[in-house]
Prior knowledge:
By secondary structure, the protein is mainly alpha-helical. It folds into 2 domains: about 1-10 and about 260-315, no CATH class; about 15-250, no CATH class. About 60% of the residues lie in helices and about 5% in strands. Helix 9 (about 125-155) packs across helix 10. The chain starts with a helix and ends with a strand.
Amino acid sequence: MSEVTTATKNKKIPVISISxxxxxxxxxxxxxxxxxxxxxxxxxxxxxxxxxxxPFLHSANSAWTQGxxxxxxxxxxxxxxxxxxxxxxxxxxxxxxxxxxxxxxVCPTGFMQDLFGGLGxxxxxxxxxxxxxxxxxxxxxxxxxxxxxLILIFFKTDPDLHQQWLExxxxxxxxxxxxxxxxxxxxxxxxxxITTAVDNGGSLTGIFGGTFKTIxxxxxVLIIIASAVYPRFYCxxxxxxxxxxxxxxxYSFLKLQRMPTRCPGRKECGVCEQICPMQIRILExxxxxxxxxxxxxxxxxxxxxxxxxxxxxxxxxx
Length: 318
């Protein structure tokens, strides 16, 4: 019976996957409307008013917006002596009411990783390595919060020391996520490197902007390679936005649940865990609703591939 059910399930048109790819593709071009301007030789600046502040953007100096994401604005406000109650509140509400659906369906960096992932396969790290590395993005965020909290304290207590810290941080003082933002790398740093190389007649001399930026470039090349082998590598282990919103999305109103009368468990099936790009141990999560400790991006691969139709939407905080 299980084999028949699985075969029938696999023959169905993957409506969810197709819909998600369409939404990701359209979102990518709407957010990156500079590409559309180049392709169609047209002016899409009207989109400025809609793409200026989006919670899934990580590039403060991007080609398509004069602004940045909510997290960048938050750190910028802290650096200039203000507490970003509004932006943190918006992030919290997004996480509580929509989980990480932006990560799974809209984020341009996530979309690029999905494209990379189609090139190199679907390998998995060991459970121990995965659980350890998922703490890395939270570590980055905690370090930044500690650093910028000090800057906020100095702003209130010692203006001269505050200014010295800002000067020592350089561009990071106003774009804190620059070194750890894949979006910054893909849509700002890399295009600038290519443009500079073209302007220099193909010469690579000085195009990286110093030793530190050269190291960052090499690291992100390695991350892209890793993303081609391990699904959503950056999302799982490095993304600062993911580290922030997972705190709230762990208690999200919007989540998935398993139907106990349909799910036979890991021994008899386990398909959901095998295909989950975030490597969530779904079968160890409560039947009543799961978020994978805030890691679930609601991509719905598990729902689509489940041969028993055991995974459904769950609405509610309990």
